[in-house]
Structure formats: C-alpha cells, structure tokens
Amino acid sequence: MGKRIGLLGGSFNPAHEGHLHISHRAIKILGLDQVWWLVAYQNPLKKIQEMAPFTERVDEAKAFVSRDYRIKVRDDECRLASTYSIDVIRYLKNRYRGYRFVWIMGGDIVAELHHWKEWDQLVRELPLLFVDRGQRTRTIVNCPFVKRFSSLRVKPQVLMRTGSPAWAMAAGPVNRQSSTAIRQLKRAGNRAGNIARIMIQ
Q: What is the rounded distance in angstroms from the CA atom of residue 184 to the CA atom of residue 182?
C-alpha cells in the first residue's frame, strides 16, 4: 500500500533505450518504487499497418527489461474495451486504490497531447511528468496543453507531494532514440539484404 508507481504508456513498437531512459529518470527524480509500461493495444493516432502485433510488442518489451525489477510490462489495454489512456488510468486508479500514480511521457508528446481523448482531464486524474527528449522550447511553450495549464506547472522534485492537478518538465540529460528510427533502420537493412541476395543470385 502507498507505493509510488509511474505509468508510461506507449506503443513500444519496439521498446528501446529511450523508454528505459525516461523510466529511470522518473524513478530517480520522483523516488518511484516502480514504473509500469502500459503497452497500447492500438494507438488511435497511429496507423494499424505500422504496428507489430500486440502480443509481440508485449513479449519484446518484457524481454527488454527482464533484468530490471523496477519496471513491469503490463497489457491492461487488452482487457479493456478501450484504447485510450484516460480510460486505462481510471481503471488502474480504481483497481489499485492504495497506490500513488504519476503519468510519465516524453516531452515531445506535449505538443500533440490536445489530440488525446479528454486531454484536459489527464492532469486532474493524476500528476504528469514530461521528460526532456530534446524538443524545441518554442514548441512546448506554444502548445495548447501548456497554454491552458501553465499555472499548474511545478518543479519535478515536488510533483508527488503536490499531487494532481499538477505537471512538471524534467530537463536533460536526453536520449533521442525512437521506435520510428529503429523501424526505419530495420527496413533499410532488410532492403539492403534483399538487394544483396538478388545480386548474389
């Protein structure tokens, strides 16, 4: 009871060092007991054809963090009739009433947060921590979320004591690795391999 749990939602398509960096930064700054990786069944803002199968993404994420007891990979979205973060948050808060949750995400997500379902209610459900991903300051300052909730911004070190509604931005160090870049490199490697096989033939 009373555990401090960070929630990191995402497609994890695939899981990578950037996810791990964000998780470890949040653990250190907020004094979290664990970070739960909430693998999205299907991100409403991403194309289905770009996604690896859900079970494959869950299994790969579990293998990736198998030696880190502080990180747990969960498949809660698979049990819910929803693919929206706000619904998963409410489900977990109701199921684990004694836990103290904080929502974690890369700072690059701030600019698109207003496209999420009930985005203006997220900060009222639980405190939010944005971890610097090397995004441009101007993009953050001018985005709808920051404009609307600028008065709720606090220092990262006091976020858990403040509770919701509140949010914080944790500055560097930065890890810019992304799932998109990994998939592009993999596709490029596959193309190169196919060309090499054709030339050998």
A: 5
Chunked into runs of 10 residues, the chain (201 residues) has average pLDDT values of 89 92 96 96 74 93 96 91 90 95 93 94 97 71 92 96 95 66 54 48 48
- Is 128:163 a contact under the CB 8 Å cutoff? no
Q: Could you tell me whether strands 71-74 and 34-39 are parallel, antiparallel, or unpaired per DSSP bridges?
A: parallel
* 43 contacts 11 by C-beta, under 8 angstroms: yes
Calpha distance 86→155 (Å, rounded): 24
Calpha distance 178→190 (Å, rounded): 19
> b or e along 134-149 (b: 16 or more beta carbons within 10 Å of the residue's beta carbon)?
ebeeeebeebebbeeb
Closest CA to 145 of 171, 116, 120: 120
Helix, strand, or coil here: 105?
A: strand
Give the burial class of 88: count Cβ atoms within 10 A of its Cβ; 0-12 exposed, 13-18 middle, 19 or more buried. buried
- What sections of the chain are H helices per DSSP? 17-30, 54-64, 76-79, 85-95, 119-125, 137-141, 144-149, 159-162, 179-200
The distance from CA 180 to its chain's CA centroid, rounded to whole angstroms, is 14
Question: Pick from 50, 19, 51: which is nearest to 35 by CA?
Answer: 19
Cβ-based neighbour number of residue 75 at 10 Å: 18
Rounded CA separation 116/45 (Å): 8
Tell me the whole-structure pTM to 2 decimals: 0.85
